[in-house]
């Protein structure tokens, strides 16, 4: 997206008077008041919310402990259980309210009430208890989108197990690395999954991942029978239905400290292996709830649909935890937006009378394309009048896509919450509030109340509005990352770098605030992290995968703007043998793409591979990525290349293997 186009954006959409009137945060005055409360008494602001929104078994007396900064602790002497806050709490008030409407790939639906879900979670938790797992043990969840994925997460939370969900699109190798890093004792998976009309394997990746070695800690693999696909069976495997056959469907929640880790979620960083982002119980849940309330303006009769998979943070905060803790009715969808056709999302919104819809720009852009080529699947063919609020997440939304979403899906009447946040922030940190904020296409607008977010220069000093810089959060907040599992040093250096004084959180994105309104526009990652279809991928991760192939001597990976995916992956590769040409080059490209799919997952496969006898390097041997990015875009290099050791190489690297 061109930053210029957002900075010169002068369309402004005010919330309607009716929306303002009924909203949970009603009007700019109310918003300013919340921000002022947080500024006047920061800890008091959060303590009040934590008392109001969470059910505590033992109330906390201390709000924030900064003794061992940046390892902050929130509400640390309080005790609660997250699953009890999502389920038990509702048993007396809304037991028969529908918690989840599940729609399968094939269009069949299933409804689960809060009471049903409570019993299913309790029963599965009782099953897990038989597996010799104790509070604090790690459990990997590798399941397709579905009720069971939420049941598994909630069941772990119920008995103090720390889950780590691995997205079903990640490979056996990725699974293996996460099992080892987390020291997981059990894996919960399914025989297979349904996607886009196909039955695909899943458990086979678990088997393969475990046999790659280093997974001796795994004691059990629990297998959900989902598809009936033939699978290999090992002595430590147990069917989900057998595990719960002889247990009751009530289970006392285990009370844990507010700071007890609720989950680890692996995400890409700029260097090395993915990092296990560790979240807390109380602070995390608090923000998931409060953002449901203020950003999504959740009301009793809403039908909420967040399309994210539970393998990502969005599916944690806005599928598995936030909506349940708020007692909302939500949709969970197993399939893909293009099956049986690209009208699926709109058809489902119509069918289930969805009122709040939250998805990613990449999905919107692909559906724009689809409705241009196949007008029958355009949103106008569906009754979308149930919608009252839209959301966007995962990457910057370009103004054109924003306008299309606003007009074609939201009928010009639904505010769009362009929510900026990260795996590490736990929930929204910059976002419009729908009954408050004048919307500007392409801008995520203003800080969520209580989040002290700003833009600074390389030394940590504030830059004036209108000047670009680094996005930082200046005070700790309850739902923040607590550490990188197994690597506290990396937590400090990645997020609290000494250059910025060591006391402010560095988000890793560039940003600029509008000179007049203070609205934020995100300018993209400042590190070597790519955002492909809203998924974070480290360039180093893909490079390591490539050089692990026996043919490859060296590789450099950069991102290139892509009109649907946001960014696409371009890899520059030097082989151990001679630079390949013609069919030979094509064959190796296919092999390397397949290889990266196996090493990381299909989402990381390079869209383009280019071969050179070498890579452009400075005389000191540093790869000049800046040049590689220019070449990837097909642009001429106009910058200074006098420090380049081997300029002749640039010609070779212009050539795309087709
Ligand atoms: C929630 C999530 C985080 C990175 C983040 C930024 C990008 C997310 C955005 C956005 C512009 C938005 N990002 N939301 N950029 N506008 N509304 O996506 O978490 O997977 O950890 O990615 O995504 O670059 O740093 P995660």
Automatic annotation (TrEMBL):
* Keyword Transmembrane found: no
Which co-factors does it depend on? Mg(2+)
GO MF terms here are:
acetate-CoA ligase activity; AMP binding; ATP binding; metal ion binding
Q: What is its EC number?
A: 6.2.1.1
Q: Which CDD domains match?
A: ACS
Positions binding CoA in this chain are 195-198, 314, 533
Annotated gene = acsA
> What name goes with this protein?
Acetyl-coenzyme A synthetase
Q: What does this protein do?
A: Catalyzes the conversion of acetate into acetyl-CoA (AcCoA), an essential intermediate at the junction of anabolic and catabolic pathways. AcsA undergoes a two-step reaction. In the first half reaction, AcsA combines acetate with ATP to form acetyl-adenylate (AcAMP) intermediate. In the second half reaction, it can then transfer the acetyl group from AcAMP to the sulfhydryl group of CoA, forming the product AcCoA.
Tell me the superkingdom of the source.
Answer: Bacteria
- Keywords in alphabetical order: Acetylation, ATP-binding, Ligase, Magnesium, Metal-binding, Nucleotide-binding
Q: How is it modified after translation?
A: Acetylated. Deacetylation by the SIR2-homolog deacetylase activates the enzyme.
Source organism (scientific name)? Methylotenera mobilis (strain JLW8 / ATCC BAA-1282 / DSM 17540)
């Amino acid at each position: 997206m061109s930053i210029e186009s957002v900075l010169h954006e002068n369309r402004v959409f005010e919330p309607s008077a009716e929306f303002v009137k009924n909203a949970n945060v009603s009007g700019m005055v109310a918003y300013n008041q919340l921000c002022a409360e947080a500024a006047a008494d920061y800890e008091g602001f959060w303590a009040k919310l934590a008392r109001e929104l969470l059910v505590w078994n033992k109330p906390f007396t201390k709000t924030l402990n900064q003794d061992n900064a940046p390892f902050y602790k929130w509400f640390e002497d309080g005790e609660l259980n997250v699953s009890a806050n999502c389920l038990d709490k509702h048993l007396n008030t809304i037991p028969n309210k529908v918690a989840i409407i599940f729609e399968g790939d094939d269009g069949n639906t299933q409804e689960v009430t809060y009471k049903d879900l409570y019993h299913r979670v309790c029963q599965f938790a009782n099953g897990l208890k038989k597996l010799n797992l104790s509070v604090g043990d790690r459990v990997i969840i590798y399941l397709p989108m579905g009720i069971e994925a939420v049941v598994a997460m909630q069941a772990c939370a119920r008995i103090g197990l720390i889950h780590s969900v691995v997205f079903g699109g990640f490979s056996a190798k990725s699974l293996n690395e996460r099992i080892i890093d987390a020291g997981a004792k059990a894996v919960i998976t399914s025989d297979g999954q349904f996607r886009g009309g196909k039955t695909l394997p899943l458990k086979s990746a678990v088997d393969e991942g475990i046999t790659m070695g280093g997974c001796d800690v795994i004691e059990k693999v629990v297998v959900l029978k989902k598809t009936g696909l033939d699978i290999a069976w090992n002595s430590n495997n147990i069917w989900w239905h057998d595990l719960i056959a002889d247990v009751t469907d009530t289970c006392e929640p285990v009370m844990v400290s507010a700071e007890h880790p609720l989950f680890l979620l692996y995400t890409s960083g700029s260097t090395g292996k993915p990092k296990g982002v560790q979240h807390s119980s109380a602070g995390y849940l608090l923000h998931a709830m409060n953002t449901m309330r203020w950003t999504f303006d959740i009301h009793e009769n809403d039908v909420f649909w967040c399309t994210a998979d539970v393998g990502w943070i969005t599916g944690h905060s806005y599928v598995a935890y936030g909506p349940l803790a708020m007692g909302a009715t939500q949709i969970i969808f197993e399939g893909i937006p293009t099956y049986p056709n690209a009208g699926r999302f709109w058809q489902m919104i119509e069918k289930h009378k969805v009122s709040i819809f939250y998805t990613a720009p990449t999905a919107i852009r692909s559906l724009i394309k689809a409705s241009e080529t196949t007008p029958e699947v355009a949103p106008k063919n569906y009754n979308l009048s149930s919608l009252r609020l839209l959301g966007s997440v995962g990457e910057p939304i370009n103004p054109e896509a924003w306008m299309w979403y606003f007009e074609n899906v939201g009928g010009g009447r639904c505010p769009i919450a362009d929510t900026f946040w990260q795996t590490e922030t736990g929930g929204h940190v910059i976002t419009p509030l729908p009954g408050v904020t004048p919307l500007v296409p392409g801008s995520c607008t203003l800080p969520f109340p209580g989040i002290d977010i700003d833009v600074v220069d390389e030394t940590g000093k504030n830059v004036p509005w209108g000047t670009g810089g680094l996005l930082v959060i200046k005070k700790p907040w309850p739902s923040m990352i607590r550490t990188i599992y197994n690597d506290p040093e990396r937590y400090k250096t990645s997020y609290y770098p000494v250059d910025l004084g060591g006391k402010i959180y560095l988000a890793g994105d560039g940003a600029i605030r509008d000179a007049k309104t203070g609205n934020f526009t995100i300018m993209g990652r400042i590190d070597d992290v790519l955002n492909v279809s809203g998924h974070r991928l480290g360039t180093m991760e893909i490079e390591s995968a490539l050089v692990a192939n026996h043919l490859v001597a060296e590789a450099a990976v950069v991102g290139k703007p892509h009109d649907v995916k946001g960014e696409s992956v371009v890899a520059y590769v030097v082989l151990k043998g001679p630079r390949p040409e013609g069919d030979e080059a094509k064959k190796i490209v296919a092999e390397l793409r397949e290889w990266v799919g196996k090493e990381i997952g299909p989402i990381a496969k390079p869209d383009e591979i280019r071969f050179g006898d070498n890579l452009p390097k400075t005389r000191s041997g540093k790869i000049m990525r800046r040049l590689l990015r220019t070449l990837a875009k097909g642009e001429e290099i106009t910058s200074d290349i006098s420090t380049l050791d081997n300029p002749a190489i640039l010609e070779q690297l212009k050539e795309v293997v087709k």
